Amino acid sequence: MSLITQLFGDQEMMDPFLSMINRCPVLNTPTDWKETHEAHIFTSDVPGLKKEDVKVELVDDGRVLQLSGERPHDDDKDGEKWHRVERCRGKFLRRFRLPENVKTDGGEAIKASVEDGVLKVVVPKAEAKKVERRVIEI
C-alpha cells in the first residue's frame, strides 16, 4: 500500500492535493487581509453562500474577528451516485487577531457584506493618538 493511499484513501489518489484542501477549513475559505489608511479589510471567498449562511463576530473581548458558516451538503436521493466531489462542504471557521489600532465599538463600526460569493468585512481604524510633547525646563 502506497503512502498516498494510506493518507488519502483509494478515491483521492487521482488528486491528493485537492483532497487535502477540501479537508482543511483554512485552505477551503481563502481570506485576504489588507490594511489601508482608514481600515483593515478582510475579503473571503464563500462561493454559493448567502449572507444568512455566514456569521461575522468579535470574540475574546473584541480583539479577534471570527468568520464562520456552513456550506451545506447536497442531499442524496435514492438512485443518485456521486462520481467526484471537489467543492468543499461543511463548516468553516477563520479567526484573525486584530491589531491595537482598530475601532470596534462593540461591533457597530464594523461593516460586513456578501456579494457574488465574496464576504467583505471592513474594520475601521481608531484615530491615532497624538503624542504630547512637554518641554522640561533644565
Describe this structure as you would to a colleague.
This protein has 138 residues and is mainly beta. The protein has a domain of 86 residues: Sandwich (Immunoglobulin-like), CATH 2.60.40. It contains 2 helices and 7 strands; from the N terminus they run H-H-E-E-E-E-E-E-E. The strands form 2 sheets. It has a 4-stranded antiparallel β-sheet, with no helix packed on it. The protein is rod-shaped, with a radius of gyration of 21 Å. The mean pLDDT is 81. It comes from Linum tenue. Keywords: Stress response.
SSE string? HHEEEEEEE
What is the CATH class name of the domain at 30-74 and 84-124? Answer: Mainly Beta
Helical residue percent band? 10-25%
| Count of separate DSSP helical elements | 2
Please state the CA-atom Rg, rounded to the nearest Å.
Answer: 21 Å
Largest sheet strand order: 1-2-7-6
Number of strands: 7
* Share of residues in strands: 25-35%
Mean pLDDT across the residues is: 81
User: What is the name of the CATH topology of the domain at 30-74 and 84-124?
Assistant: Immunoglobulin-like
In CATH terms, what is the architecture of the domain at 30-74 and 84-124? Sandwich
Spans of at least 5 consecutive residues whose pLDDT stays below 50 are none
Structural class, from helix and strand content? mainly beta
Largest sheet: 4 strands, antiparallel
From the N-terminal CA to the C-terminal CA, the straight-line distance is 81 Å
Tell the overall outline: rod-shaped
Family: Belongs to the small heat shock protein (HSP20) family.
Keywords: Stress response
Domain SHSP: 22-138
InterPro entries: A-crystallin/Hsp20_dom (IPR002068), HSP20-like_chaperone (IPR008978), Small_HSP (IPR031107)
